[in-house]
Amino acid sequence: MGQGGSTVSAQPFDVKAAVDAYLAKVPPQQRARGDAYFEGGYWLLLWDFLSTVLVMWMLLRFLWSARMRDLAERITRFKPLQAALYWVQFVVLVSIITFPLTVYEGFFREHKYDLSNQTFAAWMRDQAIGLAVGAVLGALLLAVLFGLVRRLGKNWWVWGAVVSVVFIAFVALIAPVFIFPLFNKFTKLEDPRIKDPILSLARANGIPATEVYEFDASRQSNRVSANVSGFAGTTRISLNDNLLKRCTLPEIESTMGHEMGHYVLNHQFKGLVLNGVLVVIAFAFLNWGVNASLARWGESWGIRGMTDVAVVPLAVLLLSVFFFVLTPVSNTITRTMEYEADIFGINASQQPDGEAEVDLKLGEYRKLDPGPVEEFIFFDHPSGRTRITAAMRWKAEHPAASPASGR
Ligand SMILES: [Zn+2]
Asked: What is the largest CA-CA distance in the chain?
């Protein structure tokens, strides 16, 4: 694939042939490996769901949940603290029970497919940090939610949904500054050969950034990734060291164009609104499901009612049923925005071939050429074929465009 210079070829550019040529660059063995990894993920979706249902049922049926509540009540009479203490016991116990699946999924399987660079100790450290973050954030949310249940009674779920959405927004806001640095080190990117074109791309698209940050994702894996995060004063462009090590400048520019697309197209906010609708429906379902289940089994599970924190496993069970069934919906919400960011990125960077090359690299862990139904159900990003098609279509419509000649 040459860059074409400024010559306009006599024959029309064949988009499908160009896409097929790109996909054919991946050796069959490598392709099979990426496909196997990704398709294995379909099954993990099911196993994760079933294991959650089973563990939550055990917590209810064998009264472990009721006992954790009793312990929390013995320690303090202050209701919000009881909810927090219950939650800490809950996440620790559930993490222990589901550890075999977690370690297979997050460590052994990743190593089997050469996607992880971590030693077991380093992986465990990340798990422990994740557990601590989940314990603190979940304790906060739960203390507030049970406060709503106690004060609002029957209509708690409407405000519960609102509070949860605000909470998700809050976590998204603080994550780049307070959570991501727990897992990775962020440093200022100094190399002007990379930094200058990225900042130029940012200025051209109205992104107020004066620095580019690099983070050491290679601690965890070889995956290439980047992001543009933050608000008004804290806008921050970050790219990972794998992207810097493994990609050419056109590939980096197309990737950063994509990330800037998320920012300019306001995807964080749109995602919050669209997922917020799902959260409201989820809470309505939750309210109905908890009432119906408690009427039937509440006594045998030792749960006194909706205001009792021992109800948490039931809530988690119901929510996981809801979001498992709605997997294609939430994937489509995300995938649609990812596709928008692709289109934005190609227009901004004018690097369709860079885009195609990066898409092939993502084939290491995402199936490149799935069927349309498969893509609809399981893909939270467009497939390699979809993305390369968008890039080649752009190229076909811009016969004179090349990185050197501009427009
Ligand atoms: Zn994206």
From this structure: 82
